[in-house]
Write a structure and sequence with these properties.
It contains eleven helices and 14 strands. It is of the alpha+beta class. The strands form four sheets. Strands 5, 7, 8, 9, 10, 11 and 12 form a seven-stranded mixed sheet that branches. It has a three-stranded antiparallel sheet with strand order 2-3-4. It has a two-stranded antiparallel ribbon with strand order 1-6. A hairpin with a 2-residue loop joins strand 3 and strand 4. Helix 7 packs parallel to helix 9 and helix 8 packs across helix 9. The two termini are about 20 Å apart.
């Protein structure tokens, strides 16, 4: 059975999302601080990463730079007021039963957001994206196994998948260093598309749409990382939507449009390594069925467009989707009735 949050809770979520959108751009990561060394003064950007405070050099003190820092401090003051209001909204949403995000995952997403990953095109995919549809669609996930919330990765994610292009801020590897992530070399010992946090089991993997047949890993030179090239990914991340992560005062991220996520899961379930009877394939179908049932009621036109766009992409797409739907007669009936 599909449950929904109250209209009030959904309105609070939309307020949080709007506030995050209004305050997402900031010239520095944290607060400027002036330090004196050997009789000369220097400005540093002081910011927090997880439970640690880091500093980044800005420049030697000059009247022009001091004026810029004063303007920034005023901007920080206004943003702190906004952050306090957003933290209140986050508390309200948690009280309404929205799923919170674990501290470790939240810290990582917050750092990636500050780097500009989501503002410049990075998109969260996979289970982490799925759970964020709770706010987008006003759904109450609770502990429904069909929603995928029965296992621990919905609260504390040990694997985070990010779809990227070359437009993300080039300081991304530096942010990983701040969060104590180390590269995990690929089979050839060179291509790095996965990063593992040295103080936990958290793994971040980069994905990017495949542009050539048989492409496995593609370099993203501007980011000094590589990404696993995947078929069908361009469909998934086209026309993404913003989402609010319930961590501290909220984090603005980007996720696939839920209609495309649901149809993409039908494709993915049939092409998983090991076949369509693996645990991951069954979870893919459960997520697809859950979203399709909800979207057919609340956003049928968008779901129909996403379905038609996928099956219009050729025989391979239609065959993958049809193979999954053979195992999902109720979901097939819902899509056919659109």
């Amino acid at each position: 059975m599909i449950l929904h949050h109250s209209p009030l809770a959904h309105a609070v979520y939309q307020d949080l999302l709007g506030s995050l959108g209004n305050g997402q751009v900031a010239p520095l990561h944290g607060s400027p601080a002036l330090e004196e060394r050997s009789g000369r003064k220097y400005w540093y950007d002081s910011y927090r990463v997880g439970d640690q405070v880091r500093k980044r050099y800005i420049g030697e003190d000059t009247p022009d730079l001091a004026e810029r820092m004063a303007l920034h401090r005023e901007d920080v003051r206004r943003k702190k007021e906004g952050a306090s209001q957003r933290a209140r909204l986050v508390r309200l949403l948690r009280a309404e039963g929205f799923l919170p995000t674990g501290g470790g995952t939240g810290a990582i997403l917050n750092a990636l957001a500050k780097t500009g990953v989501f503002r410049t095109g990075g998109t969260i995919v996979g289970t982490c994206a799925f759970r964020l549809y709770e706010g987008e669609l006003g759904l109450r996930f609770g502990s429904d196994p069909a929603a995928g919330t029965e296992d621990g990765d919905m609260v504390r994610l040990d694997r985070l998948s990010l779809a990227l292009d070359d437009g993300v801020d080039a300081s991304l590897p530096e942010s990983f260093g701040d969060l104590e992530f180390a590269p995990v070399p690929g089979m050839d010992g060179a291509a790095v598309w996965r990063w593992k946090q040295t103080r936990s089991e958290t793994l971040i993997q980069f994905l990017t749409p495949s542009i050539r047949a048989g492409e496995a890993v593609r370099d993203l030179p501007a980011l000094r990382v590589s990404a696993q090239a995947l078929d069908f990914l361009d469909y998934l991340i086209a026309d993404p939507v913003k989402a609010a992560v319930l961590y501290r005062s909220g984090v603005l991220v980007q996720v696939p449009r839920p209609e495309r996520y649901a149809i993409h899961k039908l494709i993915l379930a049939d092409r998983r390594r090991g076949g369509p009877d693996t645990l991951k394939s069954r979870k893919d179908r459960a997520q697809a069925a859950f979203l399709i049932a909800a979207l057919a009621r609340g956003r049928p036109e968008g779901l129909r467009q996403a379905y038609e766009a996928a099956i219009g992409n050729g025989v391979t797409w239609r065959d993958r989707i049809a193979a999954s739907l053979k195992r999902m007669p109720q979901t097939f009936a819902v899509l056919e009735a659109l």
